[in-house]
Specification:
The chain is mainly beta. The chain contains five helices and 22 strands. It is globular, with a radius of gyration of 22 Å.
């Protein structure tokens, strides 16, 4: 299918067997949405409208897209339903159901006291072990960063919160595909696609926000008994100490992989903290292979937007056209 062109959309919700992760029976669906967010612990969630009272069960949502003679069935979300809210129109009930990602079991279970991710351990393997209690399949890329220091569980630490700590330490991400498979992988460094006048899928209404207030130009990073300070003194940088005429400091503790010297890590983190200074929100046609964490190129000279941006969040409406609202930040 040519996803840059229009298509008709319908949706299917299936019950999922949590032992096999295969579809079982169909459940009626009348609408809903899916939220994905790179900064959310659970990565994604959904809300669906149905005429069936579900209780707690595993479900999977599909888009059925038709374009001319072509048709595709795309898995969008797999997760666990919560207790529904019932509404009555006369004597006809309908239910609104919140759904949580396959990472939910990892968020609900605390680590044993004294648990730690060991020094010299493979970050990717540790994350896979932690997320394995979800019951979902976990796939990791080879070559996960080696931890240069142990990461000890704090009071109330869950399997999921520790997995995120380890992922942050090695600079990787946790992603979930539409069938609920968990992927532990590096952040992409190249654009997946470029939106422009030749591949025009973005609706005309665009929100372009620049928030410099919370963006530092000096960062102090500590690690064990060491510290490194990174500065942005570049006159060409609008956020620098030179351009703004003042220093805006931030400080954070680091968990490092063996491939990241402290000074280089501090400089990279300062750049990352400055990137959200520009966020762009728009609505576009649905594309099955784009998720938070991916990089997109956007070139609309008349809108004064030209560059590469990392996807921060998405909201997919389960309605006509399967429109996707997306927020990206400067990269």
């Amino acid at each position: 299918m040519d996803w840059s062109k229009g298509f008709s959309a319908s949706y299917v919700m299936m019950q999922v067997n949590p032992q096999t992760w295969e579809d079982e029976g169909e459940i009626p669906i009348t609408g809903g949405k899916i939220d994905r967010d790179i900064e959310s612990a659970l990565i994604e969630s959904a809300s669906v409208d149905t005429t069936a009272e579900l209780g707690e069960r595993w479900i999977r949502l599909y888009l059925v897209a038709k374009q001319g003679e072509s048709a595709e069935r795309i898995p969008l979300f797999t997760g666990l339903t919560s207790s529904p809210t019932r509404s009555l129109q006369g004597y006809n009930p309908s239910f609104s159901v919140d759904c949580f990602s396959v990472l939910t079991p990892c968020a609900d279970r605390m680590l044993p006291r004294g648990w730690f991710a060991p020094k010299d351990g493979s970050g990717a393997a540790i994350i896979a072990d932690l997320l394995g209690i979800s019951g979902a399949e976990v796939e990791t890329f080879e070559g996960g960063g080696t931890l240069t220091g142990a990461i000890v569980a704090e009071s109330g630490e869950t399997y999921l919160s520790m997995a995120h700590k380890v992922a942050n330490a090695i600079g990787w991400q946790i992603r979930i595909d539409g069938r609920g498979k968990i992927h532990v992988e590096p952040f992409p460094s190249d654009p997946v696609i470029k939106f422009n006048n030749d591949y025009d899928v973005i609706q005309p209404s665009i929100k372009d926000t620049r928030d410099w207030y919370s963006c530092p130009n000096v960062l102090r990073v500590t690690y064990e008994s060491f510290a490194a300070i990174a500065r942005d003194d570049d006159p060409e940088s609008p956020l620098s100490t030179v351009s703004r005429g003042r220093e805006i400091w931030a400080e954070e503790a680091a968990q490092l992989s063996s491939s990241a010297p402290l000074a280089a890590y501090a400089q990279q983190r300062l750049k990352e903290l400055q990137r959200p200074a520009r966020e762009i929100t728009y609505t576009r046609r649905f594309m099955p292979d784009l998720r938070p964490g991916d990089i997109v190129g956007i070139n609309y000279p008349k809108a004064m937007i030209d560059g590469e941006f990392r996807i921060k969040s998405q909201t997919i409406e389960l309605g006509y056209g399967c429109d996707t609202e997306e927020t990206v930040y400067g990269y």
